[in-house]
Amino acid sequence: MQAQPASGTTPPVLSLRGISKSFPGVRALNGVQLDLFPGQVTALIGENGAGKSTIVKILTGIYQPDEGSIAIDGRPVQFPTAQAAGDAGVTAIHQETVLFDELTVAENIFIGHAPRTRLGLIDWAAMEAEARRLLTSIGANLDPKVRLRDLGIASKHLVAIARALSIDARVVIMDEPTAALSHKEIHELYELVETLKAQGKAILFISHKFDEIFRIADRWTVFRDGQFIAEGHITDVTEGQLVQMMVGRSVDQIYPKRPARIGNPVLTVSGYCHPTEFEDIGFTLHEGEILGFYGLVGAGRSEVMQALFGITKPSKGACRIGNDIRVIRSTAQAVEAGIVYVPEDRGKQGAVKGLPIFQNVTLPSLSRTSKGGFLRLSEEFRLARDYTQRLDLRAASLDQDVGLLSGGNQQKVVIAKWLATRPRVIILDEPTKGIDIGSKAAVHDFMSELAAQGLAVIMVSSEIPEVLGMSDRVIVMREGRIAAEFAGDAMTPENLVRAAVGIEEGEAA
Amino acid sequence: MTTAPQATGRQIPDRLMSPTRRALKSWEMLLFVVAVGIFVANSLASPYFLDPWNLSDASFNFTEKALIAFAMAMLIIAGEIDLSVASIIALASTAMGAAMIAGAPVPVLVAVGLGTGVLCGAFNGLLVARFGLPSIVVTIGTMSLFRGLSYIALGDGAYTGYPAGFGWFGQGYVWWVFSFELVLFALFAVVFYVLLHRTNFGRAVYVIGNNATAARFSGIRVDRIRFMLFVLTGLMSGIAAVCLTSRLGSTRPSIAMGWELEAVTMVVLGGVSILGGSGSIPGVVIAALVMGLVTFGLGLLNVPGIVMSIIIGALLIGVIALPRLWRMLRK
After folding, report:
1. How many Å from the N-terminal Cα to the C-terminal Cα in chain A?
2. Would you indicate the residue range of the signal peptide (chain A) (predicted)?
């Protein structure tokens, strides 16, 4: 087989027409179409909630469409189970790749379709040899006998890809495959995509990163609010046009930072230490200020914030809130003192999936909505209505399970929950990680509005444009210590990176 | 529908389904229909069933176990479990017996029973909430421990000869056919309903059961609530111990053997998810009635005890599987 240059005459391998899917109260997909061509990468682009994950689940047999047809090589097919999708040659590499940590690399690759001996037992020798061959073919130097839990995330992706090849997949779905990868690993992945293209696979590539889309995609398809908007060749479109199609309006200003009126100190932290995570942290935060915290992953930023919020206890140090010196020993005390924390890990630490939206919003404010320890539902709904509207939440009803919302909307619920406590300090840990451009802009906009109203904001972020675009001042952390602080003209990408990796001024850059 | 992306501050409705409609489509409703069905079947099968005094006698089948099941339901909703409840009854009953031998009056006996329950619950709670041990392991351990202490104290013997006034808790009647235990059952059904469904404490129980990490990140004192739930379960076991000891008029170390599983059965039959996070007190109340009615009805038909437990087991699996089967058949 050989690579097919972009050509309009090749018929698609996989073709979806008029696909609709509804969940209670939500129309996730409304008559969408999608074509995947052999030897080509099609980028599927859309905001969170546009229906990308739903289409992936339909293609892999996890969801059944309510309406519409799926065709492979022009013949209609159905995927009632994940097995059926696999048999038809469709395979997916997910955001959180579904593999088994306790099994070996070879077992993971061949689970469900292991080679058998004549007696019907698993042919281990053949399995290992075949696994080794597949791994080599994608340039992965991994031992098939190693247990998966001993591998890094990038290697796990390679195993997932080898698995995709082992079932002789014709359609490979990559759902944000680079989200957890380092720079070098991303480039290796790009090479791999080229290899897969050369083998004639049709690839569906889902990503939020435009540089990556323009780097490897041949075609694009845009969904918005569960509807098909447009498709075409990547060479015929610009980044701006794609963004406009995604959000249905032009995002003219990405960082809507307003000039802040910086007031009195609200929070003064001094000498905060932790036995293993951080040392001698001290800073002052003012009313109306957005203070950025930049650093490499593992620099201890989240750990400091979680100590301020009472999740972990500092071994030394004090913090002053307004005029009171306090030691915060529990999250309940932090909330009482007016410090709230929007965590990075929304799914685990933020939203309580399984409970309705309004109960999530009122959770830390129950003492206000209740009377004498007894719930008052009308008060809860009033509070939830108020704050979800301010954040422009999109949901079918306030009684809906938070787990059914898209990532961006879950984040809005978590932010609403904390604003409802009327805090003095709000700490946002990677507030826009993994959410789409439209929701990102909404979060940024709201952040500056809060600061303008006098709230003190701490924003932990690993994205330099975001840190520079939103912050009045930036603290850079390295290896658990404050490495530098920048304000005004000194806030440049170069200065931030130097401080984060530890290159002193004047050393060779 | 809601697609216009420009509109801001749109109004989101509070609810799409009214609470009444939701209640009609609930698990509790299905269980209630089952209960009515069993009631009708029983009254057709035996002429003695519809006698008020017989029904009143039958209520002793479930009242004591249900008292434990109420607290157990809250524990299981919070994602924990207590398998030591029956052993707490044994230890509490033994402690009461020892106090009785020492000549303690009735109020002191009751206080000893409840106090032992609270202490046992606090011990479980401490190990789970303070030291972070898994509750299923801790309470399997204390299940042997508490009953073991009772065996050491009593061996093959028994405490008998409780004072006359003590008998009222398990044998007395408040009015007409309404026994003290039945009134206690109704009272605690209301108390636990309010506690779980109408208070901040109850809300925290659901939150912890659904996502304990997010609960902690929301300022809920997760460990304190877990501890309190174990103490509450211990207290309810203590109350059950007072009632049961009073009704039997004696204490043996084998008292209430196997009740922990019956309490858990009641809770699960009542629609509480064994994984935590969902369930309700009305469900547990109806489940208690269902189990009581089945046991009593089969007793009237002279079905032996072993067969009865087979039927209860089949009932549990049947009722749990019913909604799933229903959905599969409709497809």
Report:
1. 46
2. none
Show the beta-strand stretches assigned E in A122-211: 171-175, 202-206
List of chain A residues whose C-beta atoms are within 8 Å of the C-beta of residue B215? 352
Class in CATH terms, A14-247: alpha beta
For A264-320, the three-class secondary structure string (H helix, E strand, C coil) is: CEEEEEEEEECCCCCCCEEEEEECCCEEEEEECCCCCHHHHHHHHCCCCCCCEEEEE
Is residue A247 less than 8 Å (CB to CB) from chain B? yes
pLDDT, residue B9, reads 53
Most confident of A469-483, B223-237, B273-287: B223-237
Task: Using pLDDT thresholds of 50, 70 and 90, give the confidence band for residue A5.
Answer: very low
Q: Which residue of A has its CA nearest to B220?
A: A332
**Residue A182 scores a pLDDT above 80:** no
A163's enclosing H/E stretch is helix A153-166
Residues of A in Cβ contact (< 8 Å) with B8: 392
A438 touches chain B (CB under 8 A): yes
* Distance between CA atoms of residues B271 and B292, nearest Å: 17
Across chain A, mean pLDDT equals 85
Confidence of residue A217 (pLDDT cuts 50, 70, 90): very high
Residue A398 has pLDDT above 70, yes or no: yes
Chain B nearest C-alpha distance from A78 (Å): 16
Smallest Cβ–Cβ distance between A352 and the set B17, B202, B211 belongs to B211
Residue with tokens 């170390």: B253
Residues 4-63 of chain A whose Cβ lies under 8 A from any Cβ of chain B: 24-25, 27
CB proximity A332 to B under 8 Å: yes
* Each residue's pLDDT tens digit, A447-462: 898 999 899 999 999 8
Cβ-in-10-Å burial (0-12, 13-18, 19+) of A85 comes to buried
Spell out which residues of chain B touch residue A352, defining contact as CB-CB under 8 Å: 207, 210-211, 214-215, 218
In CATH terms, the superfamily for domain A265-338+423-501 is P-loop containing nucleotide triphosphate hydrolases (3.40.50.300)
Can you give the pLDDT at residue A254? 61
Higher pLDDT, B259 or A164: B259
What is the pTM (predicted TM-score) of this model? Answer: 0.76
Which residue in chain A has the smallest CA separation from B206?
Answer: A355
Residue B294: CA count within 13 A, CB half-sphere: 21
Distance from the Cα of residue B266 to its chain's centroid: 7
Torsion angle (degrees, nearest 10) of CA A436, A439, A443, A444: 70
- Contact state of B219 with A334 under an 8 Å Cβ cutoff: yes
- Å between B219 CA and nearest CA of chain A: 4
Residues of B in contact with A399 (CB under 8 A): 14-17
Residue-wise pLDDT tens digits, B76-97: 999 999 999 999 999 999 999 9
**Nearest CA-CA distance, residue A9 and chain B, Å:** 35
Across the interface, whether the CB atoms of B8 and A392 are under 8 A apart is answered: yes
Q: Which residues on A lie below 8 Å from B199 (Cβ)?
A: 370, 373-375
What distance separates the 2 farthest-apart alpha carbons in chain A? 79
Q: Regarding the domain delimited by B52-320, which CATH topology (the fold level of the hierarchy) does it fall under?
A: ABC transporter involved in vitamin B12 uptake, BtuC (1.10.3470)
Backbone angles phi, psi at A20, to 5 degrees: -125, 150
Q: Where are the domains of chain A?
A: 14-247, 265-338+423-501, 355-421
In this complex, which of B3, B14, B200 lies closest to A375 when CB atoms are compared?
B200
Q: Which residues, including other chains, have CB under 8 Å from residue A138's CB and lie 6 or more apart?
A: A158, A161, A162, A165, A192, A195
Residue B237, token pair as written in the block? 């076991």
- Rounded to whole angstroms, the Cα distance separating B102 from B128 reads 34
Q: How far is the alpha carbon of B271 from chain A, nearest alpha carbon, in Å?
A: 16
A151: closest CA among A92, A99, A93?
A: A99
